[in-house]
Amino acid sequence: MQLSIILLNKSTMTTNLPEGTECISVSQGTVNWNRKRKVAPHQWQISYSKNQTMGAGLVAGGMQAKGEIILFWNSESTPRPELILPYTEAIRDGASVVMTKPVGICEKNLNGARLSAITLNRMLKRPDLGAASLSIGPFAITRQALSSIGNRLLAVPPKFLVACLQGELPIKTISVRRLDTSKAVPDETTVIQETMQAISEWIRFKGERGGFTDMKRARDLFKPKDGGVR
Fold it and tell me: Could you read off the pLDDT of 97-113 as tens digits, one per residue?
């Protein structure tokens, strides 16, 4: 299975990748115009004259990628083969989407972006995803899954996750040691706002309770005297 790697916010290509790996670098604010150019066999560079959202970089990279496995790389760490391998192995084992589960997350180092990821994952009835987020850190997806969901939904990564669950795609998380995601959140406020959009989308899909039941409460037997909500 051919692999495409999308390097986000990196202007230089990586080396020592498996032969035939497609590498696409999406850089921002580095040139005076928007352009796409081929710099070597299987290597492309997409440049923007102005800073774009991370979602715009995901869409641009996803449109260009030709591989059967697409790895979006948002990390300070260079995508070395030993860091890439867990993602490709998880895809080959049957996952359609592979997310990065952060290592060493605790109450002391939780930020708004990570808390919003935990909240969204619990609302989606996937608490096993923990603080994993498509907005933070690398993630991989199959070409088939990207085609079925639609590349443009990558513009809002949390909404893309909701669409994956609506489509019942198999999602897996992995923890990769020596992977630096400490600076992988470009704008915490944007991540939180996009997460709220995803939650609204899920509620529209599952109803006002987000797919959760009312347990054994017999609310229809109780009528408030003031006519208020039960």
Answer: 999 988 766 555 677 88
Residue 77 confidence (pLDDT)? 77
Stretch (H or E) spanning 3: strand 3-8
Q: Which residue has the tokens 């995601």?
A: 181
Q: How many residues are listed for the chain in this entry? A: 230
**3-class SS of residue 40:** strand
Q: Quote the tokens at residue 219.
A: 């609310």
CA distance 81 to 49: 31
SS3 at position 192: helix
Q: What is the DSSP letter of 136?
A: B
Which residue, among 159, 175, 166, has the nearest Cα to 206 in the 3D structure? 166
Q: Is 163 helix (H, G, I), strand (E, B) or coil?
A: helix
CB neighbours of residue 221 within 10 Å: 7
pLDDT at 35 over 80: no
**Considering the entire predicted model, what is its pTM?**
0.80
Distances 142 to 62, 96, 176, 196, 214 between C-alpha atoms, Å = 11, 5, 19, 26, 37
* Token pair 């952060």: residue: 102
